[in-house]
Biotin-dependent carboxyltransferase family protein (Marinobacter koreensis), 316 residues
Amino acid sequence: MTDTAIGVRVLRAGPLALLQDAGRFGVRHLGVTQGGPADLYSWAWANALAGNRWGAASLEVTVGGLELVAEKDLAFAIAGADLGATLDQRPVPLWERVVWKEGQVLRFASPVSGLRAYLSVRGGFAAEPVMGSVACVMREQLGGFDGLGSKLQTGDQLTVHPAGPSNNTATQQAPSGVRPDFSLEPVLSLLPGAQIAEFSGQSLYDAFNARWKVDERADRMGVRLTGPRLDCRVRSLISEGINLGSVQVPPDGQPIALLNDRQTIGGYPRLGALTPLSASRLAQCKPGQEVRLKATGSGAALQEYRAFRARIEDWV
């Protein structure tokens, strides 16, 4: 981490603020999950707006309650949830690059819409990679600003990389069309899985026509959805690899969508898997919010993801 400097100090930690880069890959055979931003979409836009290329480490701020002071002049952007962010008590515009002067205090209050905000500073936060990534996974005690999977605590200091080259230093605001409205009922695209034919016809009808409610049992491992009971002829399987967005259906018939800090293998039948952008959207849903599922094909999902990545790359 040569040429890094202290950029930010934590005045108040809040419930959960984690350092996240794109994630930890190539290690699931060791039982190590990927981590990374629960809302990949907002994380990517926060980095792009700050002038960072794909993969730079940002802060994922869940619910709010975080207070930070700048130890040097910084450029930053916040994307994702509206957590009532203020800079020296003045509202901070979201999805826009902002100047953060030395000594100014950035505060996140509480959710107005969505759950997770992403704070990116120009150059990206610096930390020593663990297994090739700084993504923070608390359960596995890996990554984060200290390498031990720790969430931010009061008094912690974050170092920042020097600002790298950017093709888009003049543009400061994201187009309105890329900013999600988290108050709307999301329709989540799902790729049908290997066991989908084992679910009853009524269950398949319910899966894609009912409204599902986000349960209080939701975190970075996964989100439980409550609604009609889904019945599957297969009750259990030999454990197999679990990918991001996998929708497992345990014996109670209530699906669980697995997110970034999921286990690496599982033995419940799967309805399918949410696309990466739909998993991102689910990560912003508050308990009690309703969602719908929509079956999609791999071609459409790949086209959507490639278009998203291309727009991010063009921006930076």
Q: What stands out?
A: The mean pLDDT is 94. Helices lie at 40-50, 201-209, 276-282, 298-315.
